[in-house]
């Protein structure tokens, strides 16, 4: 057990490119591969903590990219971490407070600090966050397919695997008729739709028809930065709206809930700037009786491990998008890989994120490595 503040010595940015087993299509584009950073943060005892930056190569989902993340981390955020030792990970978001947005860059570093903190405290990351579940239920997100027949086959396979709910990506032209067909084949399926901002209030009639299909929720139907039109839409729909892209902070969550823009919130650690902010949103939603679930960003095992730890908190009452490692990857970079059995992940009981980095596999995907050291920074200054 180490009680002294964390004195970060070095941060290594491993840039990886991992090919997806199959392309993943959303209303905003198709992913063939995943480019991202694994953050390795080394403390004064030589212990390593790990984080993952979830920004994509292109600014489709949000304005951040792999390159903006690299700039923000190297030139702005890491120097702030080197300034003084860190007694608790909550201090990281305070230290980053003067920097506007860039939530995914902030979150990647903060995640590594949380992992280090948990390891030094000899706690699982889940316990360090206050989570008490031993197991979590998960669902799976299915991209837009080229035919309904293919979609039905894919759903059927994932239902057989035991996933607790199926999320279907929709866009104009791939929505009501497709979902209706799915409902016909799977009358009792816990299913939901994610539009990734593909609609506007002009589509009100179509969106209202989705009420017939007994969806658990519809995720982010309208603009990525909207909470006003979503409130108008929610007042017309019986299906709960879940916000994803529109929520970047506790304040956003508060406003959306007060306005009636949504009845459910998808928490993505990267989108809201880290685990500390995720906890704040979680606690607020618990108080307000708003169900939350943990979203996904096509993460490698490191990001999955963080999602799993967060989902151990009590208000994560709906299955999230943290599917097994082999849902996207031929070989994941952690050991053991994330395994989903009958829709359930058992939270690892080792300290920190609870999974080991597989360095051999990491290196096989690595296209660049940048090390930022505390002493370097000092020597540059002198
Ligand atoms: O399986 C996952 O990691 C989540 C897949 C997913 O739905 C998604 C993937 C990429 C970008 C945005 C989203 C989303 O939740 O909107
Ligand atoms: Mg979404």
From TrEMBL:
- Pathway of action: Quinol/quinone metabolism; 1,4-dihydroxy-2-naphthoate biosynthesis; 1,4-dihydroxy-2-naphthoate from chorismate: step 4/7; Quinol/quinone metabolism; menaquinone biosynthesis
- EC number per UniProt: 4.2.1.113
**This protein's UniProt keywords:** Lyase, Magnesium, Menaquinone biosynthesis, Metal-binding
Binding residues for Mg(2+), per the UniProt record?
194, 219, 244
CDD domains in the cross-refs: NAAAR
Keyword 4Fe-4S listed: no
Any one Pfam family here would be: MR_MLE_C
- Tell me which cofactor or cofactors this protein depends on: a divalent metal cation
Q: Which reaction does it catalyse?
A: (1R,6R)-6-hydroxy-2-succinyl-cyclohexa-2,4-diene-1-carboxylate = 2-succinylbenzoate + H2O
A Gene Ontology molecular function term for this protein is: O-succinylbenzoate synthase activity
Coiled-coil stretches noted in the UniProt entry, renumbered to this chain: none
Task: Name the catalytic site residues.
Answer: 169 (proton donor), 268 (proton acceptor)
Q: Does the keyword Zinc apply?
A: no
| Chain's role | Converts 2-succinyl-6-hydroxy-2,4-cyclohexadiene-1-carboxylate (SHCHC) to 2-succinylbenzoate (OSB).
Q: What does the sequence similarity comment in the record state about its family?
A: Belongs to the mandelate racemase/muconate lactonizing enzyme family. MenC type 2 subfamily.
| NCBIfam families linked | menC_lowGC_arch (TIGR01928)
HAMAP family the record matches: MenC_2
Q: What is this protein called?
A: o-succinylbenzoate synthase
Organism, scientific name: Viridibacillus arenosi FSL R5-213
